[in-house]
Specification:
The chain is about 40% helix and about 20% strand. It contains nine helices and ten strands. A hairpin with a 2-residue loop joins strand 3 and strand 4 (about 60).
């Protein structure tokens, strides 16, 4: 299932599958996504479905829950627990498979073997940017569905770092000048200062009454804490 962002793949498809086939396990690459999706689907179903989640060091899924969101690592532990580790589920949904972590590829290979052992099992692969032909051929030419989503207008505005931060003059062994990025300056270039520059531009451009939230993507916990 290849669907644009916002079409409802992660929230609606598990509920559709639940009504038609039975108990559903849905994987997510990140813990936060598994927890937030379980909460959202539970609210949409008014608590009738029984929705739980399982992440590392935390399991809030009862045996009676009919939809369980879990990280890919947790599903791998289910599989490692024995041949019947996933027999309680009638449908398995692998979401965001385009990210292709190591755990994703291991799961894909395991699922192909599991389908041979359990022909009645339903497997759904979902992604916003799925490599359709590759995944379809890997599972023997399975059908592909494309679902359109909602696209909102987006203005792209570039904010560049200061030139004196990005590069510095240096001389090589021949005495000819060269341009290179100094290690200390490179850290400044990719550090919190650039993000703060973006936020300052937003503050200057928009009236305080019109402001919303800013979503910043950083490379790790240290960068998040510093920002």
């Amino acid at each position: 299932l290849a669907g644009d962002t916002g079409c409802g793949k992660s929230t609606q498809v598990p509920q559709f599958l639940l009504r038609e086939y039975g108990r559903v396990a849905c994987t997510q690459p990140r813990r936060l996504a598994a927890v937030s999706l379980a909460r959202r689907v539970s609210i949409e179903g008014n608590g009738e479905h029984g929705v739980g989640h399982q992440i590392r060091f935390e399991s809030r899924a009862a045996p009676t829950d009919r939809i369980v969101f879990m990280t890919e690592g947790v599903m791998l532990r289910h599989i490692a627990g024995g041949a019947k580790g996933l027999d309680d589920f009638d449908v398995i949904v692998l979401d965001e498979v385009h990210e292709r972590h190591t755990s994703t590829d291991v799961l894909l290979g395991t699922m192909r073997g599991l389908l041979a052992r359990r022909p009645a099992l339903r497997l759904v692969l979902m992604s916003a940017t799925l490599n359709l032909e590759l995944f379809s051929s890997f599972f023997g030419g399975v059908p592909v569905l494309r679902v359109p989503g909602r696209a909102y207008p987006v203005d792209v505005v570039h904010v560049t770092a200061d030139a004196d931060v990005a590069v510095a003059d240096a001389a090589d062994g021949s005495g000819a000048p060269s341009r290179k990025m100094l290690p200390s300056r490179a850290h400044e270039l990719l550090g919190p200062k650039l993000f703060l520059k973006v936020l300052q531009r937003i503050d200057a451009q928009f009236d305080r009454r019109e402001r919303g939230d800013a979503l910043c993507f950083l490379s790790g916990v240290e960068e998040i804490e510093r920002l």
